[in-house]
Design goal:
This protein has about 350 residues and is α+β, with helices and mostly antiparallel strands. Helix content is about 50%, strand content about 15%.
C-alpha cells in the first residue's frame, strides 16, 4: 500500500470488504486488490513464505522460541512484536533484495530486541500505522548490517519450508491425493538404472488423483520416504542421512542425482524430457510441467510433481484411472457416466 494502515477490527473488516459495500471503489479492500494485481498474487505469496521460512530458520538456530528470543521474561501479547520482526525482515530481504551474511550476529541482535529495541505503547485496541512503521524502521536499523545486497533474485524464496511440511501433514488425512518416492532408481547396490516404469506409474497416479476428487490438487514428492525401512535402504546405498518430520523421512534426491546424473539440474531435465513423452492430454502435460518445482528442505532437495483437476477427467494411455488410498484402479466403461457426471456438474 502507498500509505500506512492502522490495525484494528474495523480496519480488518474494511480490508476484507465487509464495509463500504455501496462505495467499494473507494474502499481499502479495492485499494488492496489493485496492489495485489499489480505485484501478482503468487509473487506476494512466495515472498511472504520466503520471509516466514527465514524467520523459522533463525528461531530454530537460536535454540529458543520466538518469545524467549525477543524477551528476558515471557511476553503475553506477542502478536504485535511478531509483526514488527516480520515487517523488518520483509523490508530487508524482499524490498531491499538482501541476503543474510552474518547469521550469528543477526541472532545476537534479535536477542532481547523486544526489551531493548522495539518500544510499543501499552494497551490493546487500535494500533497506529505510525508506531508500526517507526518500530519497524528502528529494528531494521539494528539488523541491517547483518545483510548484504544480492545482485539477482534469491532462488531460496522457493524453499517452501512451511508449505512442504503442510503437504506432509495433510497427506495423512487425504491419502488419495499424495504419493511419495525416495527417487527414480531402484535401491540396490549395483546396476541401478533409471526406472522409467516407476516414472510412468507416478504420472498415471497423478491423473488418477485428478479424477478421484474434482477441483482437487494431487502431489507426488520425490525424495521422501514414508517409512523408516525405505529411508534406511536409501542410507545404505547412498550413505546420506535423512531428516525426519512427523512420520516421514526426507532423503532428498541429491545423492541419487549426483551418482546417476551428475547433478540435480540434469536429473530435473531428465524428468521434464520423460514427461513430454508420457501418453497424456496436452492440458495435463502442460499443467504438470508448469508445476514441477524443487524444494530445498534444509540440505535436502525434494522434487514436487503436481496436478490440478481440469474441467473434464484426466486420461492416461487412453484410459481413465481413480485412486483410493494408495491404490489406483482403472475406470471401467460401465462407470464412465458416473465419472463424467462429477465433472459435468462443475461446468453447470
Amino acid at each position: 500500500m502507498d500509505r500506512g494502515v492502522r490495525s484494528s477490527s474495523d480496519i480488518l473488516n474494511q480490508l476484507y470488504g465487509h464495509h463500504d459495500r455501496e462505495n467499494i471503489e473507494a474502499s481499502l479492500a479495492s485499494a488492496l486488490e489493485i496492489q495485489i494485481q499489480k505485484i501478482n498474487e503468487e509473487v506476494l505469496i512466495d515472498n511472504v513464505q520466503f520471509v516466514l521460512d527465514k524467520l523459522i530458520e533463525i528461531i530454530n538456530k537460536s535454540g529458543k522460541t520466538f518469545n524467549s528470543l525477543l524477551f528476558e521474561n515471557q511476553q503475553a501479547k506477542i502478536s504485535r512484536y511478531f509483526q514488527i520482526v516480520f515487517l523488518s525482515l520483509h523490508k530487508v530481504l524482499v524490498e531491499e533484495n538482501s541476503e543474510i551474511i552474518n547469521e550469528k550476529e543477526l541472532i545476537s541482535r534479535l536477542n532481547k530486541a523486544g526489551d531493548k529495541t522495539i518500544k510499543l505503547a501499552a494497551g490493546g485496541g487500535n494500533w497506529s500505522a505510525r508506531e508500526k512503521q517507526t518500530q519497524s524502521d528502528a529494528l531494521c536499523g539494528v539488523i541491517r548490517s547483518c545483510f548484504g545486497i544480492k545482485a539477482e533474485n534469491d532462488p531460496a524464496r522457493n524453499q517452501w519450508i512451511t508449505r512442504f511440511e503442510n503437504i506432509l501433514m495433510q497427506s495423512s488425512t487425504e491419502q488419495a491425493l499424495y504419493d511419495f518416492k525416495v527417487g527414480l532408481h531402484p535401491l540396490v547396490a549395483t546396476g541401478s538404472t533409471f526406472n522409467k516404469d516407476t516414472f510412468s506409474k507416478i504420472i498415471k497416479t497423478l491423473t488418477a488423483m485428478a479424477n478421484t476428487l474434482p477441483q482437487s490438487t494431487g502431489y507426488c514428492l520425490l525424495g521422501v520416504a514414508d517409512n523408516k525401512e525405505t529411508s534406511e535402504k536409501h542410507k545404505k546405498i547412498y550413505g546420506a542421512d535423512c531428516i525426519s518430520y512427523a512420520n516421514f523421512f526426507v532423503t532428498g534426491i541429491n545423492a541419487e542425482a549426483k551418482k546417476h546424473h551428475g547433478d540435480i539440474d540434469k536429473y530435473f531435465t531428465k524428468i521434464a524430457q520423460l514427461l513430454s513423452q508420457e501418453p497424456l492430454s496436452d492440458r495435463d502435460k502442460d499443467n504438470i510441467s508448469r508445476n514441477i518445482l524443487s524444494v530445498n528442505y534444509f540440505d535436502k532437495t525434494v522434487i514436487i510433481l503436481k496436478i490440478e483437476s481440469g474441467n473434464s477427467p484426466s486420461v492416461y494411455g487412453g484410459k481413465y484411472y481413480v485412486r483410493h488410498g494408495s491404490n489406483i484402479s482403472e475406470v471401467k466403461p460401465e462407470n464412465f457416466s458416473e465419472l463424467f457426471s462429477r465433472f459435468h456438474q462443475l461446468k453447470q
